[in-house]
Specification:
2 domains, 3-stranded antiparallel β-sheet, 32% strand
């Protein structure tokens, strides 16, 4: 009888986790550069005095993975906006001081004159933070990440830096609670000159809204089914006790 209990219990636990992940995906459908999450599960043998070794397994969440597929790119007309086309990441300095990676290219000039990602921190160039002169009349970001400014005193654009764009293996990236990605070993990734961007544009979330909503309904129904199985197991156990004591 306990086999049914373990099956239903682990199924319900997985579905509860899946619902939470899908709900978070839907909540971030309008978040620039957001990468949809999914849960990965694995079977673990139950260890204990009440379970026979090798006869019971428990499904546990190994990690929450991310979908790295391209999101839609939309033109904004804002010269500080940039969207990576294809594989790659922008580099930012996270609030905790670590180097982190994002697909969000909605950049702004901070109060200290450096290029920043609002709410996160400084955008990193290949040679460190990128400073925008106070007399800059316009800013241009080239497909290779080169940042140029047209000042009120110079007749030609001035290159002030180049965005550090990286492309580490997806298997070496982990997503933090802040939504930023970092390398698993914590070491900074090297700049990749092959990464290209689209200027005056932003990449939207890659969440499949219809798929996520369908998944929520499906997970809810399956969760209810697992709970019904637990109820059935309890009722069967009670009937068995009645027969034995009769």
């Amino acid at each position: 009888m306990d086999r049914l209990i373990y099956t239903a219990m682990t199924g319900a636990q997985y579905l509860f986790s899946r619902q939470a992940i899908l709900a978070n995906n839907l909540a971030n459908v309008d978040t620039t550069g957001f990468r949809a999450d999914f849960a990965a599960m694995r079977a673990v043998p139950i260890q204990g005095q009440t379970a026979q070794p090798g006869t019971r397994v428990f499904a546990v969440e190994t990690t929450t993975g991310s979908d790295f597929s391209q999101g839609p790119i939309e033109t904004t007309g804002n010269s500080l906006d940039a969207a990576i086309k294809g594989p790659g990441w922008f580099t930012v300095q996270a609030p905790d001081g670590t180097e982190a990676y994002t697909r969000n290219g909605a950049f702004q000039v901070g109060s200290d004159g450096t290029l920043q990602l609002p709410g996160i921190g400084q955008v990193q160039g290949v040679n460190g933070p990128i400073s925008i002169p106070i007399n800059a009349a316009s800013v241009t970001i080239a497909p290779n990440g080169t940042v140029s400014v047209q000042t009120t005193v110079a007749p030609v654009p001035i290159v002030v830096g180049q965005l550090k764009m990286v492309n580490p293996p997806a298997s070496n990236l982990i997503k933090g609670a802040d939504g930023l990605f970092r390398t698993q070993d914590g070491q900074p990734a090297s700049a990749d000159p092959t990464v290209q961007l689209v200027s005056d544009a932003l990449e939207g979330s890659n969440v499949n809204v219809i798929g996520a909503m369908t998944g929520m309904i499906e997970a809810s129904r399956q969760y209810e089914m697992q709970m019904n199985l637990l109820t059935t197991a309890q009722q069967n156990d009670q009937k068995a006790e009645t027969l034995v004591s009769a």
